[in-house]
């Protein structure tokens, strides 16, 4: 049984921990609002561009991949896959990092079972450390995540250039991005997005195809694609960075709130044990005094 001194020390330690978790919850809550606004602002533009590029890909479906830009059709093969996995640089965010890494490992094992080669580009130290431990030979590089405080678009452009160079050199055939989709502060859903080749938009029926308007573009298609394809890649990665940043802050706020609640419960339990121990000690001392008096 713990002594009163030990119980007082444990109560003091848990109270100090609760102060830290409360402070971290407040910091995460203040950062969450800004990150959420940024993610929601970028989402409509990114979704519209993704859908537009998918419709564009459907118009060239069946064409020779070698005649199309690699950012649209890939290399024409399906052997080497690049997987971009977005996590955070810091922990104490509940299952935010563990969930996306678990989904990534399942997808990697699925590709391996099909005889595919997987290259990994983790964005975020937490996910990078885990994936490096399981797949050390597959790591291309481990990049720092962006929590929405720095130049997120500059980072997205840098990642997009990295992907484009690997495609041009023929080091990869396909590229997929995995990130946590921000739903709310308590819910972040792992999501997989195909970046290269562009996913073909699926229409509900043939009538939808017939009703689709036909457009003429200026400048010509080649010049238009040369500008749109790199921009689309940058925008999708940028939106994913913002979603991941919002999800991280939401997950951390929820995790620290739960930690603070658990600390309060632990303090209550320890205080109850402390009072019972104190009462027991007082009772024992009274018994000893009474017994001594009776002996005299």
Automatic annotation (TrEMBL):
What family does this belong to?
Belongs to the ATPase gamma chain family.
UniProt keywords (A-Z) are: ATP synthesis, Cell membrane, CF(1), Hydrogen ion transport, Ion transport, Membrane, Transport
Q: Which organism is it from?
A: Saccharibacter floricola DSM 15669
User: How does it sit in the bilayer?
Assistant: Peripheral membrane protein
**CDD domains annotated for this entry?**
F1-ATPase_gamma
What function is annotated for this protein? Produces ATP from ADP in the presence of a proton gradient across the membrane. The gamma chain is believed to be important in regulating ATPase activity and the flow of protons through the CF(0) complex.
Q: What is this protein called?
A: ATP synthase gamma chain
Where in or outside the cell is it found?
Cell membrane; Membrane
Q: How does it assemble?
A: F-type ATPases have 2 components, CF(1) - the catalytic core - and CF(0) - the membrane proton channel. CF(1) has five subunits: alpha(3), beta(3), gamma(1), delta(1), epsilon(1). CF(0) has three main subunits: a, b and c.
Report the Pfam families cross-referenced here: ATP-synt
Keyword Hydrolase among record annotations:
no
Instruction: Report the domain of life of the source organism.
Output: Bacteria
């Amino acid at each position: 049984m713990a002594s009163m001194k030990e119980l007082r020390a444990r109560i003091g330690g848990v109270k100090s921990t609760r102060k830290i978790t409360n402070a971290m919850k407040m910091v995460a809550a203040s950062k969450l609002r800004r990150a959420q606004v940024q993610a929601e602002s970028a989402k409509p533009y990114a979704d519209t561009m993704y859908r537009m590029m998918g419709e564009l890909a459907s118009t060239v479906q069946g064409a020779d991949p070698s005649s199309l830009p690699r950012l649209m059709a890939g290399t024409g093969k399906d052997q080497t896959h690049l997987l971009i996995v977005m996590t955070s640089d810091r922990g104490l965010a509940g299952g935010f990092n563990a969930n996306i890494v678990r989904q990534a490992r399942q997808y990697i094992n699925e590709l391996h079972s099909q005889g595919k080669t997987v290259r990994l580009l983790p964005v975020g130290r937490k996910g990078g450390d885990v994936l490096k431990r399981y797949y050390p030979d597959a790591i291309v590089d481990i990049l720092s995540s962006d929590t929405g405080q720095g130049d997120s678009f500059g980072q997205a452009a840098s990642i997009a250039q990295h992907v484009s160079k690997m495609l041009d050199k023929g080091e990869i055939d396909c590229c997929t991005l995995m990130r946590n989709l921000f739903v709310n502060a308590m819910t972040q859903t792992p999501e997989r997005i195909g970046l290269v080749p562009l996913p073909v938009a699926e229409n509900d029926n043939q009538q939808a195809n017939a009703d689709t308007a036909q457009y003429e573009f200026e400048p010509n298609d080649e010049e238009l694609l040369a500008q749109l394809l790199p921009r689309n890649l940058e925008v999708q990665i940028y939106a994913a960075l913002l979603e991941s940043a919002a999800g991280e802050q939401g997950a951390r706020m929820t995790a620290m709130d739960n930690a603070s609640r658990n600390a309060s419960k632990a303090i209550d339990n320890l205080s109850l044990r402390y009072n019972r121990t104190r009462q027991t000690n007082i009772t024992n001392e009274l018994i000893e005094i009474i017994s001594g008096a009776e002996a005299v």
